[in-house]
Amino acid sequence: MTTAGTPGHGPLSGVRVVELAGIGPGPFAAMLLADLGADVVRVDRPGGPGLGIDPAHDVTNRNKRSVVVDLKAPDGAARVLDLAERADILIEGYRPGVAERLGVGPAACHARNPRLVYGRMTGWGQDGPLADRAGHDVTYIALTGTLGMIGRPDEPPAVPANLLGDYAGGSLYLVVGVLAALHHARATGTGQVVDAAIVDGTAHLSAMIHGMLSAGGWQDRRGANLLDGGCPYYGTYETADGAHMAVGALETRFYAEFLHLLGLDHLAEARDDWSRWGELREQVAARFKSRTRDEWTALFEGSDACVAPVLSLREAPHHPHLAARGTFTDHGGITQPAPAPRFSATPTTVRTGPALPGADTGTVARDWGIPDSVNDDLVPDGD
Description:
The protein is an alpha/beta fold and 383 residues long. It is built from 14 helices and eleven strands. It has helices at 25-35, 76-85, 98-101, 106-112, 137-144, 163-188, 198-205, 207-214, 252-262, 277-288, 293-300, 320-325, 361-368, 372-377; strands at residues 16-20, 39-44, 64-68, 89-92, 117-122, 192-197, 234-238, 244-248, 307-309, 328-331, 334-337. Strands 3-2-1-4-5-6 form a six-stranded parallel beta sheet, sandwiched between helices. The chain has a three-stranded antiparallel beta sheet with strand order 7-8-9, covered by helices on one side. β7 (234-238) and β8 form a beta hairpin.
């Protein structure tokens, strides 16, 4: 259902998306679709989300447009259904059953638009004993076994912000799901519901680890394995200035170069001898504590030892490699990650800053062909 006049550049130019405003993984998924060129219209609620920052700084709302609809008003559902009728994809992140009670569930939307891909973003999924319970990233990943993998063995599991659950296990799987369903809809003319649960996506991310566990190559405890900090040549070390270096010298030749630059060639045989890993860790740690992070960065520059400085969020955009690639960009005074991945024929860009609630009612109504009677009821944008 592509039309001329929808904003955006990129491989999804012309694809229309309705996002029912929420927090966390839903908005991020919609941002990714918008970054890829889709015309994303965010349906904000009066008063904004329960957890939110200043809308002018909410980068997850970049490249989108916004209208405000009170779904609890008598005609609120009708306004959303007018948008759904003209959309390719709809994304919502309510608890199971809420969209149906509001009159904008899959059945109501598909009655107006059988080709619509209806994406549902939740933590627990649409069914199961916990489906109706509240939760957040940390509780979802706790049950999947992935949180229990992260951190030192003598400390509580380390919380990886909300990157692992909300965004990796949630948003990215929702985007994969709705794009796959969009492909199916365009081939068959039939839309469908995509049930993207953070518990499902996060569990799926651990597929390789489960294979290693089955093969006896992974111990079911923290800090005891090749990739979880248990291995002395895959992890992080403190430097003389209290900063850190990251080490990933897994392969034999990378490990040899790593030891050589540290001046620890005599520990070459400790790589495959688990009984010497304690000794190896102590000596590597002592060496890293002898110089600053910048000194070690300079020493490992140009090598294949797989060593890098651990940078902060504010430092990362200034790293020479990331700066050369334009991994970060500045738009409207906000430094932020640039759209990813990259496309040779349909490049993407940050086209607009965060959409302010209700700011685009008039242009959306015009571009999407919303009837004037419906447009008049929407919160005006000053057009």
